Amino acid sequence: MPLFITLTVFHCATFWTDAKDDSSMKQGSAELQSWVETTARERGLLHPFIYMNYALVGQKVYEGIGVDNRQRMKATKLKYDPENVFGRIWRGGFKL
Description:
This protein is mainly α. It has helices at 22-42, 67-80, 85-89. 42% of the residues lie in helices and 0% in strands.
């Protein structure tokens, strides 16, 4: 019988118009993310899955999908892009 887990994805979008605020806004976002993760862990609610589209730079999005899934994704990447063309030309994102 399949195991179903209910997850709540926390997403807090930030927006600012002045580039001089980049550093403080990024730091504030990282601090908020850290607080949410710490609080969820303390309450026994933290699940390792991180929704990639909402992840912050530096978050380890692939750790939450399991070793087997990550290995399968790497094998697929190697099969269809053995020369890592997309890894070289695709800007941003989380690379395998």
